[in-house]
Design a protein that fits this description.
There is one protein chain. The protein is α/β, with parallel strands linked by helices. The protein is built from 14 helices and 16 strands. The strands form four sheets. The chain has a six-stranded parallel sheet, with helices on both faces. A five-stranded mixed barrel has the order 12-13-14-16-15. Strands 4-6-7 form a three-stranded mixed sheet. Helix 5 packs antiparallel against helix 6 and helix 13 runs antiparallel to helix 14.
């Protein structure tokens, strides 16, 4: 809610800075591409408000979406149903979708249209992991939470269809049976009002039609009107892009890896900056998307167990356990009763990024292991076994020259000056030596 309020205030300031040409006959156009989320909902709400303020003849929404959050869909539908300006929802361009939440948004428009080669439907509620919940042999849901979501969504979409005098029976079927149809079938079944190849053809096709706008009849005369694009503000566009579970997971893992590099090699700067930026963006994504604390804690536990492999000798047990926790947490992290079509792509995103994280940790563990197995090359202990030359007789004390340095030395047996000796022990600043093997 704080996010939406902030976006609304920002958009209000931007609208105040836009010069309005109230006298010009125009249609404002907006484009919603990608998921339905709080950012896209706020964008459309502000576009409708701006259109009401600047005297636009209508708002044309170009829609191409795979679905999204039900709460954001509700906000969009509420804004359209209460708009004081006609709202035309056009599923375009060719090949576009009005899937799930997009189908609900399309049917809420005063005019619903589709381009050739587009499709609409599949409005069954699913969890944010992309699952529809278990069903019995008759196809009925056995999960109480998902059953409630299905019944509510069915009632929601039927109410919208009846409000717009569209096919409520098909709308319910799209929810209960995930029914999806093409543009021609949608026109035949009364789900949409018109099929048009482009915006010009659409506006000509609906010329003179009457629609009910806020309780009054409005005739549409839009064929010759100027079209003005309302762009999504940069901040809203960023938030819209971040409302993607796949991107949220990727940002989180990349951020953790970058911070590990910075902490293991202090002073590199760049990994630290990248890590904090990625984790900051991931935090924004988690603020937008509904998430489960259980899934998030499992993800963090998995990262912790995997990192613990660096400090414990478990022969990979901790790393395997950590990676399994990350996989399980990744599938659960967005699993809330909030109905959504946004999901983490298990095979194409979650598995590869967890595998990459595992390879990274394994490489670090291997490198650390090899370093520990190497002979010490720094400190006084590495002098053990070193060979040097006696520079004053050892009887038993004297001095030796080893690796460019003079040392006090002691020997159990007398060793004359010039003989070669081998270090057997280091006792403070005194070396214990013996005659080097093979030395005269």
């Amino acid at each position: 809610m704080r996010l939406r309020a902030g976006l609304a205030q920002l958009a209000g300031l931007l609208l105040c800075a836009i010069p309005l040409a109230a006298g010009a006959a125009h249609v404002n156009t907006v484009a919603i591409k990608g998921s339905i989320n709080p950012a896209s909902a706020n964008y459309l709400e502000n576009a409708i408000a701006q259109s009401e303020a600047d005297g636009a003849l209508a708002v044309l929404v170009e829609l191409d979406t795979q679905g999204g959050l039900l709460t954001a869909t509700k906000d969009i539908v509420q804004a359209i149903l209460n708009a004081r300006v006609p709202v035309i929802v056009f599923v375009s361009p060719r090949g576009a979708w009005a899937a799930s939440a997009g189908a609900i948004v399309t049917m809420s428009g005063h005019i619903a249209a589709m381009a050739p080669g587009t499709s609409i439907g599949s409005a069954s509620p699913v969890s944010a992991t992309g699952e529809g919940g278990p069903r019995d042999e008759d196809g009925k849901r056995t999960d109480v939470g998902m059953e409630k979501a299905e019944k509510f969504t069915t009632a929601f979409v039927e109410a919208i269809a009846r409000q717009r005098k569209r096919n409520a029976e098909w709308a319910a079927k799209a929810v209960r049976e995930a029914e999806a149809i093409t543009q021609d079938e949608a026109l035949k079944l009364g789900v949409i009002d018109v099929v048009a190849a482009d915006t010009d053809e659409l506006l000509r096709a609906i010329e003179g039609r009457e629609v009910d706008v806020a309780g009054r009849k409005v005739a549409l005369h839009l064929a010759g009107a100027e079209r003005r694009r309302i762009e999504m503000p940069p901040l809203t566009r960023l938030i819209h892009r971040l409302a993607d579970p796949d991107l949220a997971i990727q940002l989180g893992v990349v951020g953790l890896i970058a911070l590990y590099l910075e902490f293991s090699q202090p002073g590199m700067i760049l990994p630290g900056v990248i890590g904090f930026v990625c984790l900051g963006l991931a935090a924004i994504a988690f603020q937008i998307l509904p998430f489960s604390w259980v899934g998030l804690l499992l993800l963090l536990l998995g990262v912790g167990l995997t990192a613990a492999e660096l400090f414990a000798t478990t022969h990979g047990v901790l790393m395997v356990a950590g990676l399994l926790c990350m996989l399980l947490g990744g599938t659960m992290v967005f699993d809330l009763p909030e109905v959504s079509d946004l999901s983490v792509s298990f095979w194409s995103v979650l598995v590869p990024i967890v595998a990459a994280f595992g390879v990274f940790v394994a490489a670090v563990v291997f490198a650390v292991g090899r370093t520990l197995m190497l002979r010490q090359t720094a400190g006084v202990d590495e002098l053990i076994g070193a060979v040097g030359k006696v520079i004053s007789d050892l009887d038993p004390n004297g001095k030796v020259f080893i690796r460019g340095e003079h040392w006090n030395a002691v020997s159990l047996d007398p060793i004359p000056r010039g003989a070669r000796v081998e270090v057997t022990a280091v006792e403070g600043l005194v070396l214990r030596v013996r005659r080097a093997p093979g030395a005269p």
